[in-house]
Amino acid sequence: MDPVTIALALASQFAPSIIKYFTNSDTAVAVAGQVIDIAKTVTGKGEPEEAAAALREDPALAFQFKTALMANETELEKLHFADRKDARARDVAYIQAGKRNVRADVMVLLDVVGLIACLLVLCFFHDSIPGEAIGLISTIAATFGLCLRDAHQFEFGSSRSSQTKDATISNLSK
User: How many CA atoms lie within 13 A of 151 on its CB side?
Assistant: First the structure.
């Protein structure tokens, strides 16, 4: 069995809160490797399958595994957010070079146009289109709204706690 599958099985069974770290395909293998290494260290087993079996059989080992994952969460956070940090650094480099990130500007513009188009259709044609289409268009509008929210969070941070998190990640990576 491949490491990502084993690590996902371990995470879903013993520490569901860390599943979010597997969502970035670029870092999923690194995160899986860390999870498996922690499982092997806690159980003393050499193979991931053996470690998983030992964790399923012994609740005390499972508790130690969860505790070790929580202690290692800083490393997992750094891997999880590495892609976002690089994207922001790229934007800073564009600005310092006197250039604009045209791709990002076009994406945000298209999100706005798409959201407005969906809202106009819902406002002016809601009586003449079936309910299923209204539901679908509403879902599409919500997706465009979420894209705009994500763009704002990328540019400005999602909240004060997000800014604190970004500063913490930056300090930890130094």
Answer: 17
